[in-house]
Fold Secretory carrier-associated membrane protein.
Amino acid sequence: MTTGSVPPAVNSRLSPLPPEPADFYNPTASVDTPLDSATEVRRKEEAASRAGIVLEEKNWPPFFPIIHHDIANEIPIHLQKLQYVAFTTLLGLCFGLLWNVIAVTTAWIKLGGAYVLWYRPLYRAFRGIIPAIDLMGDHVLVGVNFLLLWIRAFQHLGHTVYMYFRGSGKATEMKRDAARGALRAAI
């Protein structure tokens, strides 16, 4: 016969856990934590300084001090170089992470621009090519025109590549530079 509960541990050295509040699992329940006012914070800082607790003055970064940082006065001389390297590494890491956020944001913006500027027109063009290919089977004149269009497009592409590499004289310039480099290496 079970009652639905676990019998108490008689020889346990652990004390039972306190009961949870009724709204413990309620994510919308508000937590009433009083925040100190500026005068209250100043009063506590003065009390801490009277008690002998050293409050460090925030001095870094100089334009908006948020932390205390004084390697020259607080770190032993033989460890200062190591501490400066560690601090520079930390700054580099922070800069790198900030740069990554900027780069990723820029990439997402450019991706949106790329979609609008070249992907969507290309998609729409290919969406029109499929019906054109279907139409070629029915009408010979449309098929011949379509074929001539593509031949001309590839001809233009080939001419553009040829002019870039051969027509601008870059090939002879590269051969001349290679010959000069070989002559310098021989001397």
Summary: Residues 139-187 form one domain. The mean pLDDT is 81. The two ends are 103 Å apart (CA to CA). The CA atoms of residues 114 and 120 lie 8 Å apart.
